[in-house]
Design brief:
By secondary structure, this protein is an alpha+beta fold. Helix content is 67%, strand content 11%. The strands form two sheets. The chain has a six-stranded antiparallel beta sheet. The chain has a two-stranded antiparallel sheet with strand order 5-6. It is flat.
């Protein structure tokens, strides 16, 4: 950052327009800003901070507008500077009161304004100011992005003449690291360091995982090798990482070559065994076929002997079969006769059971008599069925009559109850009227006593507060008494110290007195 010029008006102790040309001051290198106390040195730095950030330094609670400036002169600050290779002009007007344009006696509010311009060269090399931002927020973000310092950091680092160097030195290491890192742009080194640390962690993790994989594979190889293979001497060891790289590959290659040799021998032995197995299977199949034929021959010979022994029995069975075929032709006739006999017996039993349930006059009748009696019973049954609807109607009317009788009795009871309640209503009405009058009287009394009750409640609350305040006053009196005692003791101590100090001063003055010279207190030479 390089300052070129600063123009301010009605700002702080500067009541008029003033300008500072930093280019002319810094032409010979460094320059000194000095003056009496109150001359306005700090105001210049406050104006620079206000132009950059819109606020004065955070530790200065100063009024921006001058109390001695004319009413029609607005307070404003204009700063020209170069930031990150860009020449900028920042003009800020704080919020203030100004005269009305038409009525100068009336004051109106002037809103805060910010203007940011950039010096731009055209194709002919001529430069001019071009406005780029008019917003407070956008201007602040643009300046912060170019300057890379917050207002607090700017006040700590740049405004060192304002006795902030001590605060910067007393800041803790983290604050100074952040501030200096932002000032000198060391973030990229931090990112590189973070990247390298992360890369180191990932590489170490990958290395440990690779070593674990090598050891796990070596263990599996040793388990698979067993006693058939003879491992080389350079087997991988967990305590020696150097054996986990090329020696491990050589060891595994040696085992692999031994395994290939054993595999070739095993393949040749397997092929020979397969050929022998095929021949043995052919011989086994021939033996099995011969055994199966021998078993079939023995079984057939045994069956033939049994058939020869049972030939006479088979002849007897054939003769019995012929007799059975002849008897089968008469089976249907015999079955029909047995069925007719069973039906006749069942009919006689049914006739006996039927006559047992008949009336005595019908039990001795023959078939014709029973037929006539049955016809007579059918006729009587038809007459009775014709009368059944009338019987049902009679039963329904009887039930309805009984229901009407029960309803009449219920209505009679209800009428009696209603008459009794009607007789008691006048007395109940009188009782309710009396209760209503008592309730109205109680309500009126409650309305009259409500203010009194509220007053009593307030008095009760005030009494409670009074008791609490009395306790607090008592405690305060105790504290006051103790404080008065301590004050009295402190006053005595103070008087004693002043007395001793006065005695000491008298002794010091007496030791400095010289005969013939004026006394520094009274001026007497005696």
């Amino acid at each position: 950052m390089r300052l070129h010029s600063l123009r301010l008006q009605a700002f702080g102790p500067f009541a008029r327009r003033h300008a500072v040309d930093f280019d002319a001051l810094s032409a010979d290198g460094l320059f000194l800003l000095h003056g009496d106390t109150g001359a306005g040195k700090s105001t210049l730095f406050a104006a620079i901070c206000f132009a950059l950030y819109g606020l004065p330094p955070h530790e200065r609670n100063m009024r921006l507008r001058s109390d001695h400036a004319p009413a029609d002169l607005l307070t404003e600050v204009t700063l020209e500077l170069t930031l990150a290779g860009k020449r900028l002009q920042i003009r800020r007007i704080p919020a203030q009161k100004r005269p009305h344009l038409r009525n100068s006696a009336e004051l109106v509010d002037q809103k805060a304004e910010t203007y940011l311009h950039q010096w731009v060269l055209d194709e002919h090399g001529h430069g001019q100011w071009e406005g780029i931002i008019k917003s407070h927020k956008e201007a602040g973000e643009e300046i912060k992005s170019l300057l890379r310092l917050t207002r607090q950091q700017f006040c700590q680092v740049v405004l060192l003449p304002q006795n902030e160097f001590t605060k910067f030195l007393r800041a803790d290491a983290s604050e100074r690291r952040v501030l200096l890192g932002t000032l000198f742009g060391t973030r990229r080194f931090g990112l590189i360091e973070e990247f390298l640390a992360t890369r180191k962690t990932l590489t170490a993790k990958t290395r440990d995982e690779a070593r674990a994989d090598v050891l796990r594979l070596a263990e599996r190889i040793q388990q698979a090798a067993g006693d058939d293979l003879e491992p080389a001497q350079d087997a991988p060891r967990a305590d020696d990482p150097a054996t986990l790289t090329a020696p491990a590959r050589a060891w595994a290659s040696a085992l692999h070559r031994q395994a290939l040799t054993l595999q070739d021998a095993a393949d040749a032995a397997t092929e020979t065994a397969e050929q022998q197995l095929a021949q043995a299977r052919l011989a086994e199949q021939a033996v099995r076929d011969l055994h199966r034929l021998q078993q079939a021959h023995r079984s057939t010979a045994h069956d033939l002997g049994l058939l020869q022994e049972q030939a006479a029995h088979h002849d007897r069975l054939a003769e019995r079969r012929e007799r059975a075929v002849k008897a089968q032709q008469l089976q249907s006739v015999l079955e029909t006769a047995r069925t007719a006999d069973r039906e006749h017996t069942r009919a006689l039993d049914e006739d006996n059971r039927t006559r047992a349930i008949l009336l005595p006059e019908h039990a001795s009748l023959d078939a014709a008599g029973l037929t006539h009696a049955a016809q007579q019973l059918h006729a009587d049954t038809g007459a009775v069925q014709a009368l059944l609807p009338d019987e049902a109607t009679l039963q329904r009317h009887t039930a309805e009559l009984a229901a009407l009788d029960r309803e009449r009795q219920q209505l009679t009871e209800t009428l009696t109850d209603a008459q009794e309640r009607l007789n008691t209503l006048p007395q109940r009405r009188a009782d309710l009227a009396a209760r209503l009058e008592a309730a109205r009287s109680a309500q009126e009394t409650s309305r009259e006593l409500t203010p009194t009750l509220n007053l009593v409640e307030k008095q009760l609350e005030a009494a409670k507060r009074r008791d609490a305040l009395d306790q607090q006053i008592s405690a305060a009196h105790k504290v006051l008494s103790q404080a008065e005692k301590e004050l009295e003791q402190a006053a005595k101590t103070y008087v004693d110290i002043r007395r001793r100090r006065t005695d000491g001063i008298v002794a010091e003055l007496a030791g400095r007195l010289v005969d013939g010279e004026d006394c520094p207190v009274c001026g007497s030479p005696t």
